[in-house]
Amino acid sequence: MIKKCFSIILVLAVCLQMGSNICIGYAEENKADKAMLVKGKVYQAEKTKEKISLAGIEIQVFSSELDKNVDTADLEIYNSTYEFSVFCDADGNYAFIPPSKDYAIAVSLTSLPEKTGIAETVSLVKQGDKIADIGLYSIAHITAEYDEGQMVARAYAADGTGIYALCNESEKNTSFHYLMKDGVSLKNAVVSIEYIKNIESISREIQIEMNGVCTEASYVYALNKMDLSERIDLLYRLNVLSEEEKMSLYCDAITLISEKSGLTCGTSLIQELEDYYNKNKDVKDDNVSTTMTKIDNVLRSHVGPYLQEGLINVDVGSGNYYYQIHYEAGTGGPNAAVLASVVTAVRDVHNFFITNGFHAPKKPSKEEYYHIYLISGYEYYGAAIPQEYRLKTTAASYIDLRFNTGEQYNSNTNSVTSLFKFTLAHEMYHAISFTYRYNMGSEDKWFDESFASWAGLRYTGDSASIAGYINRYLVNTSISPQDLSGESASYGLCVYALTLDEYNGGIPTIRAILEATEDTANAYTAIQNGIEQVKQSYTLAGEAFNYCSLYICKPTEFYTTATSAWGIASYTIRSAPDTYTVTGDSFTSSRYVYTLNSSTAKKLSISVRRNAGVSGTGLVRNKKDGTTEVVAPTATANDLTIYIINNYGTTYNSVILSVVNGSTNSDNLNCTVSSALN
């Protein structure tokens, strides 16, 4: 998606898209008094020999009414509604009978002559005032650069004036360039784990066109913060890898022995491998068959029972030895004190879930214990792996846990780390979820990982284990869950479960949602049904998600479906200084992004005046180093909320403001937002 540049600085609220393609001409046969006509003109702003015909340029007319709810000494805010359009003659003249109120005029960019643009798109006109002439410029050049996940395009006149014009992008070609960590640039991908581990970035050449003027630019996909599964998934989505190559590489990633930090959880990858296996087990194609053999080996042999092991049983209370821990005995394995710490952690995590009404993980048929394997190495930290994986419900499983010194246990204190406890709770939640329903489907993978991450956070109370994933999700909040790239952002979606926990009944609501997976087709329905069961109120689902949207996204449709309406989650690019109004029905929110890259520190001030009803505000700022922070208001007084961001443009280059109506009442999100830059 291309960012719109040169944001419009106005003191009125006008929906520029509204009516942009509506061709309602002024009816000449209207015999109204000619004295009522107002006249305007679009003129060719640059002195050139070539005269441009201005016939057909569309002028949209909006009726505008002063918003009397705004009480400020030096500011007037107008709410505007589209009325009709008129069209210029060859010399740029137009005329119309104005609305009875003050009005605004907007130039439809779709109607501009080729290779032209305008400096201002919207103007407010008060009754009796003359309409200011509108200058039309030829586009001298355009610029385009990839910034913060989007292409930013700008158009300029010959004198450097920034102008507005329609913008489109298209692929110049379908090939990619791969920049490796050693600085070498390659044109062809190599299907191997080692190669994929060493890709720094991928770029693709595209063409940017602004009303007939073109330039070339590059989309750049940075891989330096992606784990292996995310890199493989990205290459697959870019059609660099086939599905069977993707699955073969997943097998390699899951079984890779590595001392480096890798996948948080292998559960969803193993589920995806299993789904592919079941879907293609009768395929005769040689390439697919080779991958199928590899997957079958993973599903059969990548299991704890093949580990050379020591054993210790865990009493979870009253002589109930429910779990059996398998570990590497002998030199290099955990000592007795460390194992005692593991036993305590397993007992505590088990009792955390049981006390809160969840099932215990299901033991395999005819097994006396539920098995947990402590394994040195592996690219992931943990995985809950079904043993009766072809069953749709009530699947038994076992848990693998990566158990490396330093990350999972401290040899100085002889105790397991917070990361180990987080991973254990995360994987045990997966195992418990299998007892209700195994595998909601690949599209709902985010649901499994986000709620399992909630469990890890809820048990440990240690946000450090997941903070990085939440930050990586926060910069993708306009994307629907199933369209998020890779695994990490899905872990960051635990913010939804945390919000439900905090605002909608606590852990019983999470348990009810998990129980609802037995009889539901997708995760959204399970969330809705679980909340209904606990709260007996459908609207509370919307309320909970809108609390979350103060900092996260616009989830009006989240709890029913995210595919048909997720476009409404997109944000509007704003500049400072700027003033605009925000309106909406119940359970709606709007997101506005301010961006600035500067060598000089600026101070961005944003004030939100609550004009009517119940609303909330939230602000997230993104650092240039890629981290994200939720920011509390600097000051609140009655209906006014103020945020001040220092070091804007230097330390912080992106600020996301959300304004929310988290209420059942309609039409009561009515706010005025003003920003200033010092």
The biggest sheet amounts to: 6 strands, mixed
Helix/strand-derived category reads alpha+beta
What percent strand? 25-35%
> If helices are DSSP runs of H or I spanning 4 or more residues, what is the number of helices?
14
Q: Report the strand count.
A: 36
Radius of gyration: 29 Å
Strand order of the largest sheet: 19-23-24-22-21-20
Average per-residue pLDDT, rounded, comes to 77
Helix content, binned percent: 25-40%
- What's the end-to-end separation, in Å? 30 Å
* Overall 3D form: elongated
Low-confidence runs of at least 5 consecutive residues: 1-32, 537-547, 549-570
List strands and helices in order, with pairings.
Layout: E1 2-3, E2 12-13, E3 38-44, E4 58-66, E5 78-87, E6 93-96, E7 102-107, E8 116-118, E9 122-125, E10 134-138, E11 141-147, E12 150-156, E13 162-163, E14 167-171, E15 177-180, E16 185-186, H1 193-197, E17 199-210, E18 213-222, H2 228-237, H3 243-255, E19 263-265, H4 267-280, H5 286-301, E20 310-315, E21 321-327, H6 336-355, E22 370-375, E23 380-386, E24 397-402, E25 409-410, E26 415-416, H7 418-436, H8 445-460, H9 464-474, H10 488-492, H11 494-503, H12 507-516, H13 523-535, H14 539-549, E27 572-574, E28 578-584, E29 588-595, E30 602-612, E31 616-623, E32 628-631, E33 635-637, E34 640-648, E35 652-661, E36 669-677
Parallel strand pairs: 1-12, 2-5, 3-10, 19-23, 21-22, 22-24, 27-29
Antiparallel strand pairs: 3-6, 4-5, 4-7, 7-9, 8-10, 11-12, 12-13, 14-17, 15-16, 15-17, 17-18, 20-21, 23-24, 25-26, 28-36, 29-35, 30-34, 30-36, 31-32, 31-35, 33-34
Helix pairs in contact: 2-3, 3-4, 3-5, 4-5, 6-7, 7-8, 8-11, 11-14, 12-13
